[in-house]
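Appendix C: a fully annotated inverse folding record. The material below is reproduced so that readers can follow the format used throughout the book. The structure is listed first as tokens, followed by the designed sequence.
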């Protein structure tokens, strides 16, 4: 029969090894994800998804002769920040949607 002190010591060693292995596995998976270049090249979301209510409001207001004009515009800053600004400003008196779009989006340069 194995004395209880030795049994506890063996169990403690196994628990420590298991904990270290789990920690190493966790760090290995984080570093593999960080080193994976494909994770940096996500497909951008379409403007109707990315801009949600702003996109819908611009399209419904018919600010442009066709529906593609706004979709082709390039955000001048982080689209999520533009959307947050829009949500804060849209209900203020005197809000001008066309001006907001012109300030925050640029038409792509042709040719």
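Designed amino acids, in order:
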């Amino acid at each position: 029969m194995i004395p209880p002190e030795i049994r506890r010591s063996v169990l403690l060693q196994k628990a420590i090894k298991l904990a270290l292995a789990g920690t190493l596995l966790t760090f290995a998976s984080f570093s593999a994800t960080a080193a994976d270049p494909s994770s940096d090249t996500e497909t951008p979301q379409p403007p109707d998804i990315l801009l949600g209510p702003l996109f819908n409001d611009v399209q419904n207001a018919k600010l442009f002769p066709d529906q593609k004009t706004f979709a082709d515009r390039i955000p001048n800053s982080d689209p999520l920040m533009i959307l947050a600004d829009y949500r804060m400003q849209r209900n203020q008196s005197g809000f001008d949607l066309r001006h907001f779009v012109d300030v925050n989006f640029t038409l792509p340069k042709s040719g």
